UniProtKB/TrEMBL annotation:
Organism: Clostridium cavendishii DSM 21758
Name this protein carries in UniProt: PTS system, cellobiose-specific IIA component
GO biological process: phosphoenolpyruvate-dependent sugar phosphotransferase system
Cofactor(s) of this protein: Mg(2+)
Cross-referenced PANTHER family: PTS SYSTEM N,N'-DIACETYLCHITOBIOSE-SPECIFIC EIIA COMPONENT (PTHR34382)
GO molecular function: metal ion binding; transferase activity
Amino acid sequence: MDEMNEVEFNLIMHSGNARSYAMEAIKEADKGNFEKANELIIEAKKELVNAQRSHSGIIQDEAAGKKVEITLLLMHSEDHLASSTIVVDLAKEIINLHCKYSKEEN
């Protein structure tokens, strides 16, 4: 596997992990487990940081004049990163809403 494929697969893996943690966090918040939900969001953010490190490497290479070949796998991995970032952001908002309305019921 060449270096670029490794970067692409790291993007997919870490982005997917982030999305999974975020979705699990929403489920925990729905059950009223806000501490667990927040722990899962922290894990999701760590995974996004790992994905973004791979992503920034691609950007730095291109900025340095290195030719970056745009492949379907690269586009797919970039899409994973973008959508996972959105899912994590929305999960935080959903958890906040669950928490807010849980407090209002009590």
